[in-house]
Amino acid sequence: PSTFAFDLARPRTIVLRRHSSRTNLVARDARTISRNSHPQHRTKKMKVAAALALSAAMATAFAPSAVPLARRSPTSLFAVTTAQIKELREATGAGMMDCKKVLTEFDGDVEAAAEELRKKGLAKADKKASRIAAEGKIATAKVGGRSVLVEVNCETDFVAKDDSFSKFADQAAAAAAGLEGEDVESLMASSVDGSSLEDVRAGLVSKIGENIQVRRVAARGNDDTVTGAYVHMQRIGVLVEIEGGTPELCTDVAMHVAAMNPPYATKEDVPAEDVEKEREFLTAQVADSGKPEDIIKKMVEGRLNKFLSENCLVSQQYVKTNDRTVGKLLEENGAKMIGFTRIEVGEGIEKKQDDFAAEVAAMAGGN
Strand 195-196 vs strand 213-220: parallel, antiparallel, or unpaired? Predict the structure, then answer.
């Protein structure tokens, strides 16, 4: 019988044949080996024999075994599945590796793992609470005749555009519309998808890594009035409340308020002390004009009326058409102004200003 093997040193097939009780090596592309007993010939035979032995050993070593190899058992007692990681991520919003780690710690118990991640999220939220959050979003919602604005702050405008952050702001506004009053503490204790809004906020802080705060709530209207809202670029929010008219009319007026930012709705809303202060200021301006006192008084009243017209919403020219006042627009639609509320993201919050040049100069001076 013939057997085949491969010479590792030279890629050619070697055939073994048994003939006359002697083993001859025949190479398909080799020379016929001489049969004399020259020492050089014996050396060649020894090399060939060693190559054959090596080839046989390798063939045996790499041959497939009839007995299947036993699989190594995992080092951990519990293997976390992809489905469990996905379920925990959807429930908590945590990162994949964090979910896998805590699931391994709790032997795949999703509820226990979610509770642990919530605790870690609360700890992270407490650490970040002192950081300045002056960016964010204003969200709006409406239930019946009640419209609300909710300002939710974060640290950077990048996070303010994040989908998870926007969803949380919308959830906060929807919850606020269903409550009475404008108390933030009551809002944070309200239930959202089976958890308190505060727990949802803490989980979002853990996921995003920034300080996130619900700063304030503004609300207007009831079942007897008409309200509407307008939010400009997620940063300026306006509520308008009127008697009569339609929500669409409120929205049109709210757009005007967002653009012009009037201090007051009507002349009756201007505090008496503000009117008197402006009157004294105008009187001082014309006191040295040399005109009679009655003329000066008329000049002051005329300028005061102009001041009130420029600073009261109903007296301003409606910016959308610029052909009538806001008061005239309301009158044409059978409506009367009650009031408005305007808020802007981050107003009143002192932002940290980084002076890069000063930092470089300080570093240079230290060297």
Answer: unpaired
pTM of the predicted protein model: 0.64
Please give the full DSSP string across 242-294, using - where no structure is assigned: EESS-HHHHHHHHHHHHHH--SBSSGGGS-HHHHHHHHHHHHHHHGGG---HH
- Contact between 313 and 326 (Cβ < 8 Å): yes
State mean pLDDT over 202-231. 92
Extract long-range pairs of 102-107: CB within 8 Å, 24+ residues apart: 104/76, 104/78, 104/80, 107/77, 107/78
Element (H, E) at 218: strand 213-220
Q: Which helix (H) or strand (E) holds 147?
A: strand 146-154
10 Å CB burial of residue 76 (0-12, 13-18, 19+) is exposed
Q: Decide if 177 contacts 142 (C-beta within 8 A).
A: yes
Contacts of 100 (CB under 8 A, 6+ apart): 80, 85
SS3 call for 207 = helix
- Going by the DSSP 8-state scheme, the letter that residue 67 receives in this structure is S
- In this prediction, residue 356 carries a pLDDT of 56
Strands 336-344, 236-243: pairing is antiparallel
Nearest C-alpha neighbor of 170 from the set 200, 144, 145: 200
pLDDT reading at 19 higher than 60: no
Spell 80-102 as b/e; 16+ CB within 10 A means b: beeebbebbbebbbbeeebbbeb
Residue 138 has pLDDT above 90, yes or no: yes
Chain-centre distance for alpha carbon 137: 11
Distances 17 to 22, 26, 139, 225 between C-alpha atoms, Å: 9, 8, 91, 109
pLDDT tops 80 at residue 124: no
Could you give the 3-state DSSP secondary structure of residue 209?
Answer: coil
CA atoms of 21 and 32, how far apart (whole Å): 18
The burial of 342, by beta-carbon neighbours within 10 Å (0-12 exposed, 13-18 middle, 19 or more buried), is given as: buried
